[in-house]
Amino acid sequence: MCSGPAVGNLDMMSNQVGALAGPTLTIALSKRAPSSALDLIPNSALSCRSVQMSCLSSLTGHHHSERFALPKMTWVQQVQHYAPIFRWLPHYNIAKDLKFDIVAGITVAMMLIPQEVSLSTIMNVPAHHGLYTAATAPLVYAIFGSSTVLSVSSGSEVSLLVGTILEDIDNEDERVATGIMMAFLSGCILLIVRILNLSQLADFFSRPVMGGFVSAGGLLIMLSQIPNALGIKFASQDYPPLTVYQIFNHIIKTNLTAFAVASISIVYLFGVKIFKKHYFPSPVLMQLFESEKTTKEESQANTEELEQILTPVVNNAEVVHSHGFSLTDQQYVSLRTARQAHGDRHVQIEAAEKAIVEAPQQSKAKLLAIFLVRTVCDLGPLVVCIVGGIIGWALGSSRLKLTGTIPEGFPDPKVPWYGFDSGLIAGDRFGTILYNSLTVVVVVFLSSIAMAKRLAIQRGEDINSDQELTGLGIASVVCGFFQAMPPTGGMSRTAVNLLNAHTQLASIFTTLIVILALYTLTGPLYYLPSATLASIIIVAGYSLVEFKEVKWLYRVKRDEFVVWTASFILTLGLGVLDGLIASIICSILALMWKTKRSPVVILGELENGRFVDRELFSEAHDLGDVIAIRVDSSLYFANCERVAVFAEREMIRLQALGITTHGVVLDMCNMNDLDATTIQVLSDIQEKLAVRKIRFAIANAKSRLHDILAATNIIKRILANNPSISVEDAVRMLRDLPPSGNASPSSMSRLSVQSKV
């Protein structure tokens, strides 16, 4: 319940602002020695400290003293700030971390090579341009990115979007040049967003909107590869429903060999996923590299550390397994939360402790066998490519559509705008390419940043969104100079890094292996069937579809379920490019709808004199001839009329009961700002009520709102000329005043003095 005027001293406000900064700031500052370097403070802590100082400055009207300012960074710290690799590389523990990073780098590279060849088919560009992305983006991101495990290269969502943009270009060289230019422009836009500090724009894209878009995108990815899986060909269609029609129209021409290869590959890829999940769900790499002489003290320490990790998760809610836009295996909160989850905490910790204690007792041979089986499951795409390559070599291009020739080696750098210089791309197409690059940026930014943040939470690390923009932006710009396509974070690869990698050195190893493959494996890649590549993409597309999310939304947040469904259906019907635009519009409309329908409640009175929402408290009774309204958000031009609507509705209800309203109280305890339109509407409400001999009071206005109202003449026309009185005082004044109209200024002043006493 809000009561009394919003008052407080500077120290209290400082503590409140500091609390908003979170424990990261407290921990960082408490661990920092007086002479320690600035780089020991996490980026988010620096941001929180800056926010705190700026908030205090705005509250007091003065800039904070220089003695509270953060120390200036040296040139070394500036280099570490913009290139995070130089923070951790000097302290890299070779004995502890190198073996994990090597294993992760090799595993991801073996996944990445077939994925890049497959995703190139979605982008409608030759396969080697996807490999160029894999040989460039991970290395650059490892230098400039802040996430320790995010694997950056081509991604399914971005590849589908790029392919949709490029499919209407008939000339292959022009398609490639356009894709390269889009990579360069996308990187430039990301860097501009970083420089202008516009990363907050991501907050305007709700999770349900992007979840619906990505889930529909996963289905569109699967749909785009069905022709390759069936071995049929037809002209590209503008809208997905037309593609479905063409598939059924040409299904009689199915290449049975291609269909068999694709079907067996899909069954295998899904099979190894299910097999790994059910029989080998836990990683054993850590146990494999541990000494067999692990002591009980070490096991106990591991248990305590695991308890610290599990406690905040279990105490908040039970997590459920999911895939798709959740980006990791444990993201969504089920309805069975807090109460039961708290009871499960000790069970989970006991199970984890038992696993930690018993694990070292397993033989190294068994642990190695488990690790190899899990790795083979992770490398399912590589296995189907090897088998498919053998089949393609045996049957030849007469029976199967093959990948074809892939140039050997790493390309020489070339300016990304060579297409314009050579006349390959018409000059008037620059605006279209820039617009398309902007749509790519939206998907890259939202998916990669969201993924990096969630991974950081799981690993207890600090992620700086601005630094992620820098890493992704520079990686994309560099890709443009090496004939690569737009990069983004990849879920399946990042999941492997999450389990095995300790630092971004794993991505550097991945890059080296991909470059080696460009010089040694381009010959065998010639025989890869398109049906095999299609099976890899279909399985990857399925991993993006998130129906657990929509079930959760349907049960808990029905309004956001509608938004998710709208984004999903529009994307399925219009295609990925138009669907993205439609999803953005859905996000904006959802924001407008929520702010337009800000919560407005009618207050009732309990027996103890408290004023509460009468809808939530059935025992609360009406205030008689007084109406008290509370708005649970700030008012602005789009929602301020709701106050008048609710007041009028309540007066009509009271009139039907034979009660004449003599006063209306507006409780502003939850409001932080007023715009000019709202002030005018409040003035109009007061005037209309005055004509009907109804007094108008404003209560619990914070100091900022008090100052705004004091600058207008409305403050002279409200009860007691004071918008900061409590609701209790306002109701008591209205009840004490005679019901014959507005009281005289003297009586108002007298009541105001009495209320203060």
UniProtKB/TrEMBL annotation:
The chain crosses the membrane at residues 176-196, 208-227, 247-270, 371-395, 433-457, 498-519, 526-545, 565-593. Residues 741-757 have a biased composition (Polar residues). CDD domains: STAS_SulP_like_sulfate_transporter. The keyword Transmembrane applies. Residues 616-734 form the STAS domain. GO terms for biological process: transmembrane transport. Keywords: Membrane, Transmembrane, Transmembrane helix. It is found in: Membrane. It is a multi-pass membrane protein. Residues 738-757 are annotated as: Disordered. Pfam families: STAS (PF01740), Sulfate_transp (PF00916). It comes from the Eukaryota. InterPro entries: SLC26A/SulP_dom (IPR011547), SLC26A/SulP_fam (IPR001902), STAS_dom (IPR002645), STAS_dom_sf (IPR036513). The keyword Transmembrane helix applies. GO terms for cellular component: membrane. PANTHER family: SULFATE TRANSPORTER. This is STAS domain-containing protein. It comes from Phytophthora kernoviae.
